Amino acid sequence: MAAANQSESAGAIAGFVEPMRAGAAILGFLVGFLATYRSGGALAESTIHGLVGALLLGPVGWFLGLVLIREAIRANVEDQRTAHNMRVEDARRQLVEQLQASGHAVPAALMEPVGDRRQLGSGS
């Protein structure tokens, strides 16, 4: 089950990153080709420069896609953590209200604020 989920995640990430890599490669080809062609280069020479541009910008697009997907995942994790903390706080509040309504003592641990003390690292 975990292997299938990991494969799904990898496919989703690749589905986001690969089009960015391809777009950057196309942009690199166009810039290299047009810069050489417009400055008077022959068609074959312009094509070679376009291919070099594609080879140079392809990895840049791949890296940019990975950075963007990483930041999207981090934001999603933070959103889920915030929603979880809100649910825990709501459940704790309801428990304290029930204990107080029934005349029981409320443990000190239930009076502490909710929050995960762990922080996400910088990722770099």
Could you name the ranges where pLDDT drops below 50 across 5 or more consecutive residues?
Answer: none
CA-based shape: rod-shaped
Reported for the largest beta sheet, the result is: none
Mean pLDDT, rounded to whole units? 87
Figure out the total of helices.
2
Q: Determine the N-to-C terminus distance.
A: 30 Å
Helix content: over 70%
Query: What percentage of amino acids are in beta strands?
Result: under 5%
* SSE sequence, one letter per element: HH
Report the count of strand segments: 0
Radius of gyration: 27 Å
Number of domains: 1
Summarize the topology.
Blueprint: H1 2-38, H2 43-101
Helix pairs in contact: 1-2
Q: What features would you describe in this structure?
A:
The protein is mainly alpha-helical and 124 residues long. The protein has one domain. The protein contains two helices and no strands. The chain has helices at residues 2-38, 43-101. Helix 1 (2-38) packs antiparallel against helix 2. The model has no long low-confidence stretch (mean pLDDT 87).
Question: What descriptors fit this protein?
Answer:
124 residues, rod-shaped
Brief characterization of the structure:
The chain has 124 residues and is an all-alpha fold. The chain has helices at 2-38, 43-101.
